[in-house]
Design a protein that fits this description.
Length: about 130
């Protein structure tokens, strides 16, 4: 896999993704956890089709800032770019913005895993 792969996702700010609804605050604005989820989704989807069958990625690190509020009804767009590949570790630069400008940015690392053995390991932790 090579650097330079880009992803893009767009989401409307609905009541379900507000800080009040997800428990990260008391206001009806786009929640930081919702922004983070959109950032992760944008990154993993950008490379998913390039992986061998039975493989996926999991998030292992995220450095994020949420710099501006976005109200209900606004549209948030997220863009990612794969900037480093180190074996199975992928590093993305991600930014989120609404109609008024930038609302957040992140450096996000994901690790390529074989899904079956990863799930076995996860299930083993629950016993």
């Amino acid at each position: 896999m090579d650097t330079g792969i880009k992803g893009k996702q767009t989401k409307m700010v609905t009541e379900e993704c507000t800080a009040k609804a997800v428990g990260s605050g008391s206001l009806d604005v786009f929640a930081t956890p919702a922004m983070i989820a959109l950032m992760e989704e944008t990154a993993w989807k950008s490379v998913a089709a390039l992986l061998d069958p039975g493989y996926g990625t999991v998030g292992i690190r995220l450095e994020v800032t949420h710099d501006a509020p976005t109200p209900l009804g606004a549209r948030v767009t997220c863009e990612s770019e794969l900037v480093q590949v180190d074996g199975r570790k992928l590093t993305f630069e991600v930014r989120a913005y609404d109609e008024k400008g930038s609302i957040g940015k992140a450096v996000h690392e994901r690790f390529i895993v074989e899904e079956g053995s990863f799930m076995e390991k996860a299930l083993g932790r629950g016993k």
